[in-house]
Every structure is written in C-alpha cells, then in structure tokens.
Amino acid sequence: MEEKEISQAVIGRLPRYFRYLGELRDKGVERISSQELSKLMKVTASQIRQDFNNFGGFGQQGYGYNVNYLYDEIGKILGLDKAHHLIIIGSGNLGQAIANYMNFERRGFIFKGIFDNNPALKGKVVRGLEIQPMENMEAFIKDNDVDIAVLTIPKTAAVSVAEVLVKNGIKAIWNFAHCDLNVGDDVVVENVHLTDSLLKLSYNFNCKNKNS
Amino acid sequence: MEEKEISQAVIGRLPRYFRYLGELRDKGVERISSQELSKLMKVTASQIRQDFNNFGGFGQQGYGYNVNYLYDEIGKILGLDKAHHLIIIGSGNLGQAIANYMNFERRGFIFKGIFDNNPALKGKVVRGLEIQPMENMEAFIKDNDVDIAVLTIPKTAAVSVAEVLVKNGIKAIWNFAHCDLNVGDDVVVENVHLTDSLLKLSYNFNCKNKNS
Fold first, then answer.
1. Which one of A36, A82, B14, B202 has the lowest number of neighbouring Cβ atoms within 10 Å?
2. How far is the C-alpha of A11 from the C-alpha of A6, rounded, in Å?
3. Which residue of A172, A174, A194 is in closest CB contact with B192?
4. Which domains does chain B have, with CATH numbers?
5. pLDDT in tens, B45-60
6. Given CA atoms B118, B124, B129, B130 in this order, what sign does their dihedral have?
7. Low-confidence stretches of chain B (pLDDT beneath 70)
8. If DSSP codes are grouped into helix, strand and coil, which group holds residue B44?
9. Using CA atoms, how far apart are residues B84 and B107, in angstroms rounded to an integer?
10. For the segment A138-151, what is each residue's pLDDT rounded down to a tens digit?
11. CB–CB contact A172 B92 (8 Å)
C-alpha cells in the first residue's frame, strides 16, 4: 500500500464500514457488492469505492467485496491487529461506563488502570481494577507500557493532567473533557465533546420544528 | 436572516464557537477580531468569516466581533433560547453520567424522566428522578411534553425502542447505542458512537507510531 495522507473524513467513516461488515460477517454473509453495501449503509456506492480506493481497493470487478477479507483488512488499517494499553483518568459515571464496556477489550483495548482524586472512590473496584489516587499515575504509565489515556475529568483539570500524561510518554488521548487540549503534534487527540453533540442536535431540532 | 440550507460541517463547528465565546465572555472580553479568534481556536480567519456569513455575518469592519452579542446570537441559532424536555432511556453508568451533567440543564435541556428495565435499578434516584420501568415511558412522553430522548441502551434494544419513541411524538434522539436508527426524515438523530471514536483514535495512533 502506498503511503499517502488519508483525509480525516475518510478515516472517520472507516469505523462505520467496519461495524457493518462485522454485522454482515456475523450473519454469515460472504460477499457484498458496493451497490448492496450502499443501500444498507445509506451512502453512495461511488463514495464507498472512493473511500476504499484510498487503501488500494479491496473489490473485484463482477464479484464485489469478500466480507471477511474486507473486515479483516479494515481492522488492520484501524490498528486492531495490535493490543493497546489504556488508563482512565476520572472514575465518575462516565469513566466507569467506558471501563465496563466489554466491546473495547474485544477489539484489543486493554484497560490497565483507573485513577481518581476523589477520596470517596478510593479502593472501589471498577471492572476488576481498584481505583488509584492520581499520584500513582506517572509511575503506573511507565511500569505498564500504557499508550492511550482516557480523560473523563472536568475541563478545569484536563489541560494540566494532559501535560503530565504526555510528559510520561502517552501517545494518544481520548478526551471527554469539554475543552481542547494543547499537546504536541506527535500526540493523537480524539475529542468526544458531548455538549457540542447535544447542541448540534438542538440546532437541527429547532430548524425542523421552527414553524410548529 | 435568509432561509437557506446550512451544511452539517458548519453546524458541527457552531458549538465550538459558542464554547470559546462563552469562555471569552466569562473572562470579561468584550470584543475580538476574527484574527484573534482564529489564533485562539486554531482555525483560519477566513473559515470563521465564511462560517458566520452563513448566518448573516455578525462582524463589523475595523471592530471585529462583539463577544456578548455573538455568543447570544449563536446561542439562539443553536436553539438555546428555548427550553427542551428530555428523557433518558437506559440508566446504566452512561445514562447516569448524562443525567448528572449540570451543564446541559444550564443550557435549557431539562431532564424530566429516566427509564430502565433492569429491576435492580427500580426506585433508584438519579439527579432527583426516580428510575421508572419502561412500560411507563409512552404515557410519560405525552404527559410531560417531551421532545428529546437520550438512548443509552444496548443496540439490541435501541432500534425497537426508537420506533416506540417516534410513534409517541419524540422529535429528536440523542443516540449512544452502537447502531444506526432508521427513523423518518422528520426526526433528528444525533449519534455518539464511542467505539467509532476510539477506532478513529486507534487509526491515527497507529499511523503515527508505525515505525516506532
């Protein structure tokens, strides 16, 4: 595969392809045409072909796509053929929800530790992991070969905690705090801004219901 | 303001403008140029001007933007000058995290009820609301003028619950279930697919760390 810059829009669509292909595979479907996939996913067949062409194609003229093969290839592109070690910073409801979501572990995202400064949570066990105080975090990252940190703490603390994480070798942050993190270009930040998502819903809701 | 179709990309950026302007306002900043806003938000000044031009501009040549005014106007565009009634379906950790997030209520999103079929949760109180069994849901929607439903249930149940919601007059669904909902075009669906977000992070992480 040629090395080229793939747009974030294409990358953003890969997990959805992966999800649909996984469901097809689970149903025993062996092959699918771009037209059928298009109908199922409600995107144009031309978009599907263009997206896959970024990675060299995958399809065969007159045959379509082999579901298993395509699923595995997209999985590899997404880095799911490797295991990743994660820690969660912030063990409130959101941190616990993420820790308890089985699906992530099935995909190779292994939760190694969970941290919180709230003394009321000290010693509480979340998915087999005892909540640890924040002062343990730096040593833990080094000892456990942690690559990814999940930030589910309020924005007031997020920026400074992110700096500590990066200083200790964290290469990717899944950020649920409602702020942008200023980390270097070599650190991947993926934001989940729930408020932004709700405001987008609100915009679309109010547009549709303006006259009612 | 002229009625025209605004792209979802522009709409997706509005909440971030709103967030930055709110922070500027809280700091007492009265006006800001598109250049300063550009530097702060790390988007081009031309993008900012183009985005705002979709709504008629807001800026004044040689003055820049009035922070308070712009904040209020974007708030109105986002529908935040009206109150919305929400229910949450699924009172696991994620449902509870959303219910407990104070910021939503401050923006006019009022949680009216929370529902779950898990008998272990029956009678538990989340943010002042007693968790109700699912069979109460339909009557509750009608009696409480609910517009928005938040779906934090597994995907196996989400599609059928969404149908019931729409049948009972719900006009917008904030969907955290890991599936696409097939509801009519008159219903707004805003998806938060956490797995998709983590896979996107994984892709970008693996691209950057391929050779290490």
1. A82
2. 7
3. A194
4. 8-77 (1.10.10.10), 84-196 (3.40.50.720)
5. 999 999 998 888 777 7
6. positive
7. 1-4, 211-212
8. coil
9. 9
10. 999 999 999 999 99
11. no
ipTM reported for the complex, 2 dp: 0.94
Instruction: Say which residue the tokens 């517009």 belong to.
Output: B147
Q: Compute and round to an integer the Cα radius of gyration of chain A.
A: 20
Collect contacts of A73-77 with beta carbons under 8 A, ≥24 apart. Answer: A74/A14, A74/A17, A74/A18, A74/A21, A75/A18, A77/A14, A77/B203
Q: Does A73 touch chain B (CB under 8 A)?
A: no
User: Residue A2: pLDDT band by 50, 70, 90 thresholds?
Assistant: very low
Q: List the beta bridge partners of residue A149.
A: A87, A173
Contact B19 A196 (CB under 8 A): yes
- In whole angstroms, give the CA distance from residue A173 to residue B197: 11
At how many degrees (to 10) do helices A194-208 and B8-26 cross?
120
Tokens 């229910």 found at: B87
Please tell me what DSSP assigns to residue B179.
S
